Amino acid sequence: MKLIRERLVNILMAAGEILVGILLLINPLGFTAGIIAGIGMLLTALGTLWVLGYFREEPLEAVKGQKLTKGLCAFAGGAFCIFKYEWFIATFPLLTILYGIGILLTGITKVQWAVDMLRMKVKLWYYAAISAAVTLLVAMVILMDPFTTTAVLWNFIAVGLIVEAVADILAMLFSAKRHKEAEKAE
Q: Up-side HSE of residue 155: CA atoms within 13 Å toward CB?
C-alpha cells in the first residue's frame, strides 16, 4: 500500500490521460479549442494579476520585477489563445511533431524503467516493457504523420493515450505487488 501511495501521482496522471483520451474521442476539435481557450483564460488572468501587482509595488521594486511587461505579454498571449484558437488548429502538423517528440522522450524514459525493473529482477518487468513499446509505437506513428485529417489523428492519439495509460497502471500495480512480495520475503 505504501508503494501505491508513493505512485499515486503516476496513477492520477494515467487516469488523466484516460480522461483526455475519452474527451478527444468524443469531440477532438472542440476539446482542443476548449483547451486552448482555457489556457488563454489562465494567461489573461495571470497577466492581469501581474499588471495589478506592478502598480501596487513601490516604483523601485516594480522596475526590478518587470511585472508590467510580463503581464502585458501574458494578457496578449491569452487574448490570442481565446480569440484566435483556430490558428493553433491550423498549425496542428507542427504541434503534432512536437507532441510526437514529447511522447518519444516519454517512451525512452519508460525503456529505462523497464530495464531497471529487469535488472532488479522484478518478475513482471515485461509489463513496463510493453508500456514502453506502446509509447514508442505511438510516437513513431505520430512522427510519421500518415493521416490526412486532423480528426483521424486525434482519434488515434486518444486511443493511444488510453492504451498507454492502462498499460502504465497495470505495470505500476504489478510492480507494487512484486515490491510487496519482496518486502515480505525480507
A: 7
